[in-house]
Fold this sequence. Notes:
The structure holds 2 protein chains of 2 kinds.
Chain A: H1 13-26, H2 29-38, E1 45-61, E2 68-83, E3 93-99, H3 103-115, H4 122-148, E4 151-152
Antiparallel strand pairs in A: 1-2, 2-3
Chain B: H1 9-24, H2 34-40, H3 42-52, E1 54-55, H4 57-66, H5 71-82, E2 87-93, E3 100-105, E4 116-117, H6 131-134, H7 158-163, H8 198-207, H9 210-221, E5 229-243, E6 252-266, E7 279-286, H10 290-303, H11 319-325, H12 328-336, H13 343-369
Amino acid sequence: MSEIITEPEQGPGNEARRRWMAVLARASRAELEAEWSDLPRPPSYEWLRRPEVGLVMVRGRAGGTGQAFNLGEMAVTRCALRLADAAFGAVATGHAYVKGRDRRHAELAAAFDALLQTPDGRGPAQEAVRRLADRRAAEREQRSRKANATRVEFFTMVRGENPR
Amino acid sequence: MYVAVKGGEKAILNSHKLLAEERRGDPSVPEVSLRQIDQQLGLAVDRVMTEGSLYDRGLVALAIKQARGDLVEAVFLLRAYRTTLPRLAVSEPIDTAAMAVRRRVSATYKDLPGGQVLGPTYDYTHRLLDFALAAETDAPPEALEPAEEPVAHPMLRVCDVLGGEDLLEPETPAGDPASGEPEPFDLTREPLSFPAGRDQRLQNLARGDEGFLLALGYSTQRGFGGNHPFAGEIRLGEVSVEIVPEELGFAIDIGEITVTECQMVNQFAGSASRPAQFTRGYGLTFGHCERKAMAMALVDRALRCRELDETARYPAQDEEFVLYHSDNVEASGFVQHLKLPHYVDFQAELELVRRLRADHGDARRKEAAE
């Protein structure tokens, strides 16, 4: 598969790409399907690496900050593709590594990743990513507010300090 | 010794059919779905993910269904399945300080930044059977009114609060910064080796059987290797997993997982080489496995006896004993292999016992005659 390995892409563009890849990884397949079909012009693409299910070994650190250790594996699906459509102003390669075993999820995530790198496809794709990110943020906030409803104050009972 | 046998194919096939029937139970009762297991038996899923060492709720739900709720069997199924998948990458160590916290309690400080957040816990329930659930009306639970504000984020770890005064031993990455961190030991690639590093021990304990670790952790509290623990912090929530794919050359976030982390803080009077300081034990699991994370932290601390100049006297401090016996797939396999035919072996033993008995009888008779 070495022929499909592209040059490491460095530079300031990575931060934005890292953000949208995280959002795409957290989206559900149904959400991505809906966003994809809502695109004004969904591009066609060709496979560089068809979706493949595998494992990522998840690591932790002793005490949270110490020696690294292997915690356990998680199922992950990856793929890579290239936009076949020259109409978007650039030839772009899309990559995806997403939690789970849903090949279509990985495919759509990679397709969006490619589209987001093209001058002409970027706009609508960015809107989609924004909607997905907002939804995840709203869910997280709701979970967190529920958790915060369970925040307590413990009082220590000390003998002799009871109010008279 | 187990000796291979032939025959029994028909019986085995029929046993599979009977097993499938038993698994399904009464066909007039609706079949349980993987979604139902995932959503309504979530803590069983969490336990199997942790001990099966594979984070995939759908696969775990399937394993639990197939194993008819036998969680150790489900762990076995999962471990077997994982061998069919290629390893695509290893993650960067997860950052539990950046966790989206849903539960966080500390038994050492009542007032701490972010506060005590109980989250979803059985701790303060009355442990009375709730017969309303037996009625199966599917009435929605009483609605929880969310707080105005979310919990603090990021939420400082208790150990990072204590660490400031040097009262608590620091946890720092292995190796020196110049040469970089050594690759952690990986039990899925190499057999156990002794003496074991903390990386090997923590991976083993993370995969280890909850019951075994619970009993060992309990034994340390009851004086068999006491290390005076306090639950410095227990936290539950979601963390991001990042990998650096070769073809990209930068770290990407591939999604989030739920983890439970326990930081035990232990009294330590000091030794010839170290001043008095609180020492630490660490527990980390997939999903919400709090009992396991706490037991793991107790045993992790007990196993650190060598580096802390403590004499290893008790089972929980004996790393060969603990690490060799913690895995329930191995333990179950070795215990249960006793069910397989040992006919030839037993026949030989039988002959031996008969001969010994005969010799014993001869000797007695000779004695009586003299």
